[in-house]
Q: What sequence folds into this?
């Protein structure tokens, strides 16, 4: 067998192995993300869970999350705030997840001024929509 054929076969084998490992990694990240969202749904106003979620989302391993997963994390944080509009931890968590969500695709990995305004608007809407006769919490003013 010619040596160049062996090199080509090794290259193809290496590429197949790389793609297989990348698929395994993506599946592991997806499962971890689902577990995080489940923990968040089970204990939505626990600051310890919030910290764990934020640390995990900001980990470089999670940089490959899809836009829909990022949107899910942000909408979950906003839903928690809508359910608990007077909870400071929920508002702080929604702000942090919003900054991560909007900033993750920016060059400097930080949200722009316009993103910050959009996050603030989202937070204010969630606080005001759910409070009927109760005045908004300090974090929502």
A:
């Amino acid at each position: 067998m010619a040596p160049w054929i062996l090199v080509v076969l090794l290259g193809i084998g290496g590429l197949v192995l790389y793609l297989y490992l990348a698929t395994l990694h993506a599946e592991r990240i997806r499962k971890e993300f689902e577990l995080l969202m489940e923990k968040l749904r089970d204990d939505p106003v626990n600051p310890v869970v919030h910290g764990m979620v934020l640390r995990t989302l900001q980990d470089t391993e999670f940089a490959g999350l899809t836009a829909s997963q990022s949107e899910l994390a942000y909408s979950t944080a906003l839903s928690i705030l809508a359910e608990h509009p007077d909870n400071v931890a929920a508002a702080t968590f929604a702000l942090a997840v919003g900054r991560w969500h909007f900033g993750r695709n920016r060059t400097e990995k930080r949200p722009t001024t316009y993103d910050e305004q959009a996050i603030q608007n989202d937070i204010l809407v969630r606080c005001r929509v759910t409070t009927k006769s109760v005045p908004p919490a300090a974090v929502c003013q």
In short: Confidence is low (pLDDT under 50) at residues 133-138.
